[in-house]
Design brief:
With about 230 residues, the chain is an alpha+beta fold. The chain contains 8 helices and 11 strands.
């Protein structure tokens, strides 16, 4: 039985979806079944995919709702599952009508093309209602988060919720690369835009949320359980 050092609540598209199939191959990791995958061969790509995605690969393809956290000693995984189930049954299924590729602080990601309050509200609910499960991080790790330079609201979030980019600072995104330089960005964006052209023309249904765990053995995140939202 796999044991986990940290947990997170993410959105991850269904394993059978075209987006999930491509992204899992691109990252070389299928979080649904915790298996490595062969990378696609993309002749127009000038960089090695494994190098472009080294860190992102270990997290699996996802959009963060509640960032990774260690669980407090007074609670366990079953308690967390029950809380997520209760939360999931308070939110109706919805969709993000349009998605697109975008460079965010140097990272290539898939984002909502327009403001979507439903995904923001879902993330806010996950952060607030599951916060009692979050173990406080060591000061050294908190200081490392500060070292990137935070706004006043991000600093408040860090102190209140343990992570800067939540609540009003939240932006839904599904990251595909490490931070790239301008030349890398141009090439990667062109290649991914071509590969994902059909997928990016479709909406993104949000039908469930996922409890991910960081394996003590592999160090990779994998899906522990999916929790359907209300019909």
């Amino acid at each position: 039985m796999t044991s986990f050092s940290r947990y997170a609540v993410y959105f991850s598209p269904p394993e059978e979806s075209a987006l999930s199939k491509f992204a899992s191959s691109w990252l070389g990791w299928n979080a649904q079944n915790a298996q490595k995958m062969s990378r696609p061969i993309l002749k127009r790509l000038n960089s090695d995919i494994a190098e472009l995605t080294k860190i992102q690969s270990s997290y699996g393809f996802h959009g963060t709702l509640k960032p990774p956290f260690s669980i407090v000693k007074t609670k366990d995984e079953n308690d967390l599952k029950y809380a997520i189930l209760k939360l999931s049954q308070s939110i109706k299924k919805f969709e993000i009508s349009t998605i697109r590729l975008k460079i965010l602080n140097g990272f290539v990601a898939i984002v909502a093309a327009d403001e979507n309050n439903e995904i923001k509200n879902l993330a806010k609910k996950c952060v607030q209602e599951l916060d009692s499960f979050r173990q406080l991080e060591p000061l050294k790790k908190v200081q490392k988060r500060r070292s990137t330079g935070l706004s006043k609201s991000e600093e408040f979030n860090l102190q209140k919720w343990g992570y800067p980019y939540v609540m009003d600072s939240f932006r839904f995104h599904l990251t595909l690369t490490r931070r790239l330089n301008p030349e890398e960005s141009k090439n990667v964006m062109e290649v991914l835009a071509a590969e994902l052209s059909e997928i990016l023309r479709a909406s993104l249904p949000i039908r469930d949320i996922c409890l991910f765990g960081e394996s003590d053995t592999s160090g990779n995140f994998q899906i522990i359980q999916r929790f359907p939202l209300l019909d």
